[in-house]
Design brief:
Chain lengths: 125, 827
């Protein structure tokens, strides 16, 4: 089962080798998430319109290993942007990936950029 | 567990990092929580029981070697040898080898189907055996040998496996170490009412059967037929390693330790169930944790710290849903004190307190059926606090005036231990708040670790925090979350008055930050209750299920439930449901609410499934929403020869009226055609029962975890009056309930209870009846089927795709076959 999560490792902006073009910015729901497919990986991308920021992380929730985080609700806790898994409301920081309401493994985070209204996610390979 | 606690305390204590800690365990996995072992039956997730994941050990520089047993200790060389022949040296050695279940030497105990109850592997063995048994013999029985604490847990476990449970105890009472005979009798009655058979005074002489167990022989012609046996007859310390290297052990086992937890070899310590301290083995977690603490202090901390002389053996637990607690001296020899007893067998309640001869001090007691006062009684006992004048008030409650007989937790001395798992004192909790280092419950728990162990002290910690904050002039109220500092009722009023229409407007009007998974769905629910907007208007603030108008299931697929009002359906519609299920390969099941649930639909299939259903005349069943689910009905006077009225017709009318109504929690209704009550209407939020001369209307019933019968609101009323009262009742609930509060809990909190509710709904004492009826009328008129909206608007279908950049579906889904249908592969 751990195979599912081990495929996902946080990528820092400096480690990006591929900027993968996803879709136009307006295709993303405001203050919501979608799931992106890249080379067999599932990546959740959030358009945090209220803050004017974008976040990307693994779609698989480390709790029960289901591909669902993109369907979760976003918000903030003491100023830290977060996503809540739709299954059991496990929450993760969208800045560091850490589990905010438990001891689950952190989720992997990926950089996002928007250029000319096109959304890209950064991968190392 | 005690070994792990040692590691935790060691890490916390080790400032310089001068020691290297290596942990050996013979089981294949890291230390896990044996106290909650029976939970494994519910979720079968061994990881959930782990005290810390493997990487915790890594991060703290602890080498964890599992699946490897230590075979020998060479004390002179300070060396140990493991089962694979490896050798390690030590400066200090800590033995936390625990205990093994004691298996009495009964003839035939080696037969197949006989188990002990100790490790996850034991449980897995039992589960596999029970599974096989059930297939061959649906009525299979399982016996548990031993009526102690663990034995009763095991009985619950075999009951959960679908076997008929029998508990066999040698002594004349249950939990002989904790309970007196009266207490045991009350507990026995209660357990029997739950379906657990209890056999006391039985000395098992032989296990019967040919190869596999078939029964147990007690006396000459006394036997019990059983297909499985779980032995839970006490523990024996695992001291074989200590014996092999000549450490001092007790006559009946256990490694002898002093009050520093040292064995007869000063560089070897023993802690937990293997340690014999004061000639006793302590099988409880709290003394074990204290031993771990002392051993750490002796090795790297404060060597002056020593083990407590008198170990508190008080326990409180929920056994199969029954409160059982025992503290201090549960049995009272007459020369030491006197007892006050309260027994009510009709309610399975028993309370006993033992007080000193002068009536001044509490010495111990037993509580069965209701242990809500345990924390306070335990504190009074531990701190030797003075007792009230009428000592009996402690177990009977004060019978004049509303004052509690305890006073509050605030009256405890500063040094009172509130959390025994983490040894947190009252002053630790209140001190931080008073000094401003902490300012709410969450921070107190994070800083002191109070209530993070078994959680039993949480109500008391909460009370201390709230009372201390109050004393500082801070108002404590049940606000929604950090974004909205209001109760749901207040927020409902604000949003209504300010005519707020969206989440962003709500934050603007009275909130801060960006919202969260608590306030977003709450605002969505209130807006829906105010305007009957469907969940499509602002999908990103809807809860998981409302977002996709379907119930998310364990593998991320969804279930589909079309509305079938009153449970009435034509053959044509049934065929459509069958065809849809066939086309999309969905698992189908009849629900408790008289409709049909189709499971296993993938996100992208939902719009097409609903298109077919809506074309056939179905509507959303709102099975996913905090909204009206169903109005269940019996067949009523149209067919039934006992029926007094047309229950199906009325159920359909009510379900059609309130369908789509969003509320603080889900709503269920029922209509029965006579007092035989086949629709189980009194287990619903509202229930209508036909009687001579009209309908009786009952409200605020509940099935679920805390079942409650609905209470009579009005008698012998006609259809029109019934609807009028229901409109008022439901709107009043929607306006004033807390988030996720069902009607039964709401009525519990409503001052004045059902009488007050009658005043408001029937007599209009608040003069709001017209308003409530008008609001309901607006909601009823504004109803739209939200699935129809989706099917008719392609734009709205966009969110029902697994990927934004691909038409593929989630390739992570795996199903396995089950009884000619399918189910998700287990977690």
């Amino acid at each position: 089962m751990d195979v599912l999560t081990s495929a996902y490792k946080t990528v820092k902006e400096s480690e990006v080798n591929v900027w993968f073009e996803v879709a136009k910015a307006e295709d993303f729901p405001k203050d919501g998430g979608v799931c992106v497919k890249y080379k067999g990986k599932q990546i959740a991308v959030y358009n945090f319109t209220r803050k004017g920021t974008w976040y990307a992380c693994q779609n698989v929730c480390p709790h029960k290993l289901e591909m669902v985080l993109s369907r979760g609700m976003i918000g903030d806790e003491s100023g830290v942007p977060k996503v809540a898994c739709p299954m059991h409301k496990k929450t993760f920081s969208l800045e560091t990936g850490e589990n905010l309401n438990g001891d689950l493994d952190p989720i992997a985070m990926y950089p996002v950029k928007v250029e000319n209204n096109i959304v890209y996610i950064g991968f190392s390979e | 567990m005690v070994g792990y606690k040692f590691c935790e305390k060691f890490v916390a204590n080790q400032a310089g990092g001068s020691y290297k800690l290596t942990v050996f365990g013979e089981e294949p996995r890291p230390a896990y929580d044996r106290v909650h072992l029976s939970e494994f039956f519910e979720n079968q997730d061994a990881k959930k029981l782990e005290l810390a994941p493997r990487n915790w050990y890594e991060e703290n520089d602890i080498e964890l070697i599992t699946g490897e047993r230590v075979n020998a200790i060479q004390r002179d060389l300070k060396k140990i040898q493991t089962s694979s022949g490896k050798e390690y040296t030590y400066d200090y050695l800590v033995l936390a080898t625990g205990s093994l279940p004691f298996v009495p030497p009964i003839d035939g105990v080696d037969k197949k189907g006989v188990f002990v109850y100790r490790t996850i592997e034991d449980l897995e063995g039992m589960l596999a055996y029970a599974g096989k048994l059930k297939q061959e013999k649906p009525e299979a029985k399982a016996a548990v040998l031993g009526g102690g604490l663990l034995g009763l847990e095991a009985a619950k476990a075999v009951m959960d496996m679908g076997l008929e449970p029998h508990v066999v105890e040698f002594a004349p009472k249950l939990m002989p170490r904790q309970l007196d005979s009266r207490g045991s009798n009350v507990l026995k009655l209660k357990l029997e009412s739950l379906g657990i058979n209890i056999h006391l005074n039985k000395a098992t002489s032989k296990i019967l059967g040919n190869g596999s167990i078939e029964g147990m022989q007690f006396g000459e012609d006394d036997a019990l037929a059983t297909d499985m046996l779980v032995i839970s007859a006490g523990i024996r310390p695992r001291d074989e390693l200590a014996k092999s290297c000549d450490l001092e052990v007790g006559v009946r086992g256990g490694i002898v330790v002093n009050n520093k937890m040292q064995t007869s070899d000063p560089s070897i310590y023993a802690i937990g169930e293997v340690a014999l301290y004061n000639q006793m083995i302590y099988g409880l977690v709290a003394p074990g944790y204290e031993m771990a603490d002392i051993a750490v202090d002796q090795i790297i901390g404060d060597p002056d710290k020593q083990m407590t002389e008198d170990i508190d053996m008080s326990t409180k637990l929920k056994l199969i849903g029954v409160d059982v607690a025992s503290f201090g001296e549960p049995f009272m020899p007459a020369e030491k004190g006197l007892s006050i007893l309260f027994e009510n067998k009709t309610k399975h309640l028993y309370k006993r307190i033992n007080v000193s001869h002068d009536g001044q001090k509490l010495l111990g007691g037993i509580l069965i059926g209701d242990a809500s006062d345990y924390n306070m009684l335990h504190q009074i006992y531990l701190n030797g606090m003075d007792l009230p004048e009428n000592v009996e008030d402690l177990i009977l409650g004060a019978r004049s005036g509303g004052e509690s007989s305890f006073g509050s937790a605030m009256s405890l001395p500063d040094t009172a231990q509130i959390c025994s798992c983490e040894n947190v004192l009252k002053q630790d909790i209140c001190g931080g708040l008073l000094e401003g280092k902490t300012c709410n419950l969450k921070e107190v728990m994070a800083q002191t670790k109070a209530a993070t162990g078994c959680g039993g002290c949480k109500p008391m910690v909460t009370e201390l925090v709230n009372e201390t904050l109050k004393s500082l002039g801070q108002e404590v109220k049940e606000t929604i979350c950090e974004h909205f500092e209001y109760t749901r009722q207040e927020l409902y009023g604000i949003l209504k008055v300010k005519k707020v229409q969206t989440f962003d407007e709500a934050i603007e009007a009275c909130g801060k930050g960006h919202g969260c998974e608590v306030c977003k769905p709450l605002i969505a629910s209130i807006l829906a209750s105010l305007y009957n907007d469907t969940a499509n208007k602002e999908e990103v603030i809807q809860d998981s299920n409302d977002k996709f108008l379907a119930n998310i299931q364990r593998n991320g697929t969804y279930s589909v439930v079309p509305r079938i009002p009153g449970g009435e359906i034509t053959p044509e519609k049934l065929i459509v449901i069958g065809e849809v299920a066939k086309e999309y390969d969905l698992y189908t099941k009849i629900t408790g609410g008289q409709r049909i649930d189709l499971f296993g639909a993938e996100l992208h299939q939902l719009p097409a499934i609903w298109k077919t259903l809506i074309e056939a005349g179905f509507e959303s069943g709102h099975a996913y929403g905090k909204s009206l689910r169903t109005v269940k009905s019996c067949v009523g006077s149209t067919w039934c020869r006992y029926g007094m009225d047309e229950s199906v017709s009325f159920a359909i009318e009510l379900e059609d009226r309130y369908k789509g109504l969003r509320s603080p929690h889900k709503l269920k209704g029922g209509v029965s055609g006579c007092i035989r009550e086949c629709a189980e209407a009194r287990g619903k939020d509202f229930g209508v029962i036909a009687v001579e001369g009209g309908w009786n209307l009952y409200v605020c019933g509940n099935g679920g975890a805390t079942p409650k019968h609905a209470l009579l609101l009005a008698e012998q009323i006609d259809n029109e009056t019934c609807i009028k009262y229901l409109d008022r009742f439901l709107m009043y609930y929607i306006r004033t309930a807390a988030p996720l509060m069902r009607t039964a809990a709401w009525l519990d909190k409503l001052e004045g209870g059902i009488e007050q509710l009658k005043q408001v709904v029937v007599n209009d004492s608040l003069n709001i009846a017209d308003e409530l009826e008008q609001e309901m009328e607006q909601l009823v008129n504004a109803y739209e089927c939200e699935w129809k909206q989706i099917v008719e608007d392609e734009q709205l279908q966009g969110r029902f795709k697994h990927f934004i950049n691909s038409e593929d579906s989630d390739d992570n889904l795996v199903f396995v076959p089950m009884r000619e249908q399918k189910m998700p592969k287990a977690w």
